[in-house]
Amino acid sequence: MELHDIVSMLSEIFTIVGLLVGLPLYLVGLSMRGFGGRWVKTDGVIAQTAQGLVIRWFDTTGEVHEALADSVESASLEPGSDIPVWFRAHVPSRGRTHTPEQDGKALRLAGLVLLAIGVGSAILGIVLLFV
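and the corresponding structure tokens:
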């Protein structure tokens, strides 16, 4: 086999793998972010209770919600400290302290890298047809 044939065969393999694996990964990453619903950002406060440290926040209607302060972001905070909290408008009792933009980010990035490899290999394969 000549070098041209080997590069052409590898180009076809990378095109198939890049496009067939990269597109579903990217779509799953987008759906994780999109189907998660809208998150509302608010300010929470760390409070001390008999159960331990908790985070309290107000929803859009003014109701107070509470959750255990067991996240990485709240681990080093003292009672009375402010902390950003995100909650869903339809389920305000479930809050989170990490930003929702991270949802599916690794899948989207891996999908984009594989898609770029697949498209680049496809272009290389077309160029090799004419060389």
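(Above: one complete record from the training split.) Residues 3-35+103-129 form one domain.
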